Amino acid sequence: MNHTTADRWTPLTGVDRAIGLVSALLASLGAIWTLGLMVLINLDVLLRWTISAPLPAVPEFVALSITGIVFLQLANALRADRFIKSDALAVLIARRFPRFGRLTSVLFNGIGAALFFCIAWATVPIFEKAWRQGTFVGAIGDITFPVWPINLLVIVGASLVALEYLLHAARDGRPAP
């Protein structure tokens, strides 16, 4: 069996697989969470309609959940090439000038990594404050939800997206076979 350089295992391949596994697991968790939200919202609507008694704190929980779900699924979306982008010009440049196309791709992936590392870094103090102060949403005496788990998901999700961007940059930076 004849293996090319791309077929051989490298430390980068191991990191790539690990990040892929984690991003797939987090995306699955986000999908399950979305399904749970759909059930909760429909139950809330049904109870409002049938007995005029909504479930408490559903809007607050949904608002928190949306942020968590998005950051759980971002890395997997990037990995699967499902991020919204306009790359018509980049594709034309890469066809005409492959080396320059690879260089710009590495540059843009590096910028994406830096942006998401900045998001993660900027969220750390927000997470720490929410953790220390016990910040919550909801009504005391009714139902409250702590905010820190969502902040933690933003940090983890943004960091994972940044790592995925770095993997894209590393792949795009390799010379064409």
Automatic annotation (TrEMBL):
Instruction: Report the domain of life of the source organism.
Output: Bacteria
Which cellular components does GO assign to this protein? plasma membrane
* Domain Tripartite ATP-independent periplasmic transporters DctQ component per the UniProt entry, residue ranges: 37-172
Give GO MF terms, alphabetically: transmembrane transporter activity
Keyword list (alphabetical) reads: Cell inner membrane, Cell membrane, Membrane, Transmembrane, Transmembrane helix, Transport
Q: What membrane topology does the UniProt entry give? A: Multi-pass membrane protein
The cellular location(s) given in this protein's UniProt record come to: Cell inner membrane; Cell membrane
Residues annotated as transmembrane: 18-41, 61-78, 106-127, 147-167
Could you say which protein family the record assigns here? Belongs to the TRAP transporter small permease family.
What the protein does comes down to:
Part of the tripartite ATP-independent periplasmic (TRAP) transport system.
> Quaternary structure per UniProt?
The complex comprises the extracytoplasmic solute receptor protein and the two transmembrane proteins.
Name by which UniProt lists this protein: TRAP transporter small permease protein
Species per Swiss-Prot/TrEMBL record: Marivita hallyeonensis
